[in-house]
Predict the 3D structure of the following.
Amino acid sequence: MSQRLRVEGLSKTFHGRGSWRTGRTAAVHAVDDVSLTIEPGQTLALVGESGCGKSTLVRTIAGIYQASAGHIFVGDTDISQRRALRRHRRAVQLVPQNPLSSLNRSRSIRHALTQPLRVHRIGADTAEQERRAATLLERVGLSADYLPRLPVGMSVGELQRVVVARALAIEPSVLLLDEPTSSVDLTTKARIMNLLLDVQRSFDLTCMIITHEIDIARHLSHRMAVMYLGRIVEYGPTEEVFNRPRHPYTRMLVASASASGPLVNADAAPVPVGEVPRAASQVDGCAFRPRCPHTADVCGSVPLLRPAGTSQAACHRLDEIGADS
Amino acid sequence: MEPLLEVDSLRTTYRRQGRTRTAVRDASFVVHAGEVVGIVGESGSGKSTALMSVLGLLPPNAEVVSGRLLFDGVDLRTAGEAVLRSVRGREIGLVPQRPMTSLSPVTRVRRQIRRLLRHHRSEDPARSDATIADLLHRVGLGGVTGRLDNYPHQFSGGQLQRLLIAIAAVGARPRLLFADEPTTTLDPTVAAQILRLLRDLRDELGLAIVFVSHDLRSVAQLCDRVYVMYAGDIVEEGDVRSIFDEPRHPYTRALLDSIPGRHTPLEPMPVLAGSVSSLPEDRRGCSFAPRCAIAVEVCHENTPELLPAAGGQVACHRYPAGGGTPSDLGEDR
């Protein structure tokens, strides 16, 4: 049964080791007051560049990091309390970014798939756990022949299927995927995308997919959230965000990877300006201000998400800069 | 017009655990002065190996078995190390894939740039600071001239890539630039800036560029002419529009078909069956035949030659008979 995932005012702050001389510590607001809802059985794509906090956000939702503030609800249950950790992990599973480094290279695929069952005490005995592991492998397009194999020597596409199967082993209602297609070749990407679409439908999952490839986000998601320096700057139905990007940063992203229209249009696309900022950098007011072509005095204060068409965008100057890029 | 670089029937092999694998099999390509040539293929297709063969920068277990590598009329394969040293950097610049690992992490940036300028241009150290400032301005790094006494890790990936392009393309004033997946480790908005920079440098300096990438979108935006590689073979060549608008080889079509933006969202994508890794070393016939939806008997028997086709060349027995729309192909699961 898929359930709604609701994140409310979620923040995650890391405290760096202080300077040995002054003792001052630097706080990094990796995720800053993020609220999101994913309807049951739907997919949200979280898009952003490196250091924007998207991995921290899913890791916090997955219970790997403890939230500094805010709540995470699966259905009506608040799972963000630390004492609910076991329940939290049953409900929400994360497929990590690099499949090979997330598997134990000296243990078999059988071990990788039955360990979550042992930890969560699912299945009457070892034989049943193994039967479940074999079924899972078949569900992700591999066969039970893979059970005794080691991760070494398997292709990235096969490993990706194994880690998806492992995440599904304890029957979570929410699946989080961190850059599922970043380490594979173009033609393998299509296969992994088909696997994710298939798994989501047949297991009835609520999904959240992190990616920096905006055309993959578009293909796999119902809604899209764009993140910049710890905050959501645009949030709405995927086609709306893609076809009518509102926030200047979303426009830059969509333009740099424009999937619609002809591929060969070298001079048509506007070239983005500026560098991707570091997470630790503190900007007063709108974080995008240093790179934004539309800044004005009003951008000195932090913009909040507000409705724009059927999506929401966090920009003071939405009305001035219009809906088309 | 004489091409600037003419690679003729290049064959490069790797030895690994007593076995020999052919990474590039009899590939031929040319680059004319001032032209941006793209080489597209997936990992293992031999595209980087082909470039490194030209520069004589292969790892010790790799060997150029046959072929001619004519740069400006001189065969770099037989010319010897002294000639290669004078060509590398000075005549043919290289922009590497990972900017972070291409500079020494323990030497200040200013010193590394000076050293390269001295080597490639016999630059007088007393004058080099002015040259460096000029270089940085050319690649849009005017803002970092005050930070040259920093170490590489204090710069962002995009800044380092600009810096390396400044050294390779502007500082040494080569006639040809090899860019080996220069944008893969960069964020999309920064990658777009680097592509524009390469294009601008071509226009300003008349530089020829070979751009190796698996990212079709970047190739479409930057290149004039494109070669498509599959399993060590060049399977198609053509100007950028004909490759992207009227692909002729089934593999090129499959590649273009794997771009998600061209399909209905939330529906399964067409998938190319099989994998490239299962190809036997002593294969007969077309390398792509085992995965090709329109392969016939002759495809498994004879290796197709790269033959002229409208707007380019294609190595396919089924051309032009196999013409069709991309979505006719490889509907696997």
About this structure: The first strand of chain A starts at residue 5 and ends at 15.
